[in-house]
Design goal:
By secondary structure, the chain is α/β, with parallel strands linked by helices. The protein is 35% helix and 14% strand. It folds into two domains: 105 residues, no CATH class; 147 residues, 3-Layer(aba) Sandwich (Rossmann fold), CATH 3.40.50.11350.
Length: 273
């Protein structure tokens, strides 16, 4: 059987999509011949390879030979412009060798039995334990506001200004019409801006989880009864992992500001605003 190599890169949200794709590929191929490629450059910009630390998952093995094969394939592609061994988003060939994409498409999980549990016990400090208790005791709604890297020129033209004040106000209005006595929990990397646009009673602003502890925000958001997300795979997964059967999940009508096609990750249960 031909070796297959799945690349894991990006932040935690992207790594989760890549893991789901790995499971999908595993259903169609010999698991013993599927390996993982974990490029330091592709993981360094975030918090490294987080998924195995945060979730109870088993990633495919890697080896020195795996890395050498990937480098050889990329060199061949660079010299001969031959992509026959590489599968990417929008160009999937299950007979390929190297699978290098983000695989943000619901087709990969619709026929896969996926169980994603946070690795327990999570190390929650006093502040996060208090927030968790408050979330579980109220009709809680998470609001995720991502600014940070989205304000940088190279990302702003792709992701920036989509989840603006108007989006969040409309999303909150929708919640207020549907939910009795809502209690909002705002998670943001720009808490001052968040406070300037979120003006509702019963609100808690959360910005104590940074760097290697940022995954705790995903965990806390997943515990909320309802979710208002940003155009971010991080908060998309928080809503997806929300186990409330009657949850309301609100997302922006557009995912990208540019001409990129929106990812096929929304089912009919999502509200797009």
């Amino acid at each position: 059987m031909q070796m297959k190599i799945v690349t894991f890169q990006g932040g935690l949200g992207n790594q989760l999509f890549q893991y789901v794709f790995y499971l999908w590929l595993d259903m169609r191929c010999d698991k013993d011949n599927i390996y993982g490629y974990y490029p330091k450059k592709g993981l360094r910009a975030h918090n490294g390879l987080e998924i195995e630390k945060v979730f109870e998952v088993k990633l495919p093995n890697s080896s020195l030979s795996t890395d050498l094969i990937v480098k050889s394939i990329k060199l061949i592609n660079k010299i001969f412009k031959n992509r026959q061994y590489i599968s990417t988003d929008g160009r999937l060939d299950v007979n390929g060798v190297l699978f290098e994409g983000f695989w943000q498409d619901k087709c990969f999980w619709e026929d896969v039995d996926i169980v994603l549990n946070f690795r327990w016990p999570l190390k929650l400090d006093v502040t996060n334990s208090f927030i968790m208790t408050k979330i579980q005791a109220n009709n809680s709604i998470s609001i995720h506001i991502r600014r940070g890297d989205y304000l940088l020129p190279k990302y702003r033209n792709i992701y920036g200004d989509i989840c603006n004040e108007e989006y969040y106000q409309k999303a909150i209005e929708y919640i207020l019409k549907c939910v009795d006595e809502p209690f909002f929990f705002v998670f943001s990397d720009d808490i001052d801006w968040a406070k300037s646009i979120i003006n509702v009673p019963n609100v808690t602003f959360v910005n104590n989880n940074k760097g290697k502890d940022s995954y705790i925000d995903m965990f806390l958001m997943s515990l909320c009864h309802h979710n208002i997300i940003a155009n971010s795979t991080f908060s998309w997964w928080a809503a997806q992992l929300n186990k409330h059967s009657d949850k309301i999940m609100i997302a922006p009508i557009r995912w990208f500001k540019s001409l990129f096609k929106d990812p096929n990750i929304f089912t009919e249960s999502w509200i797009r605003i």
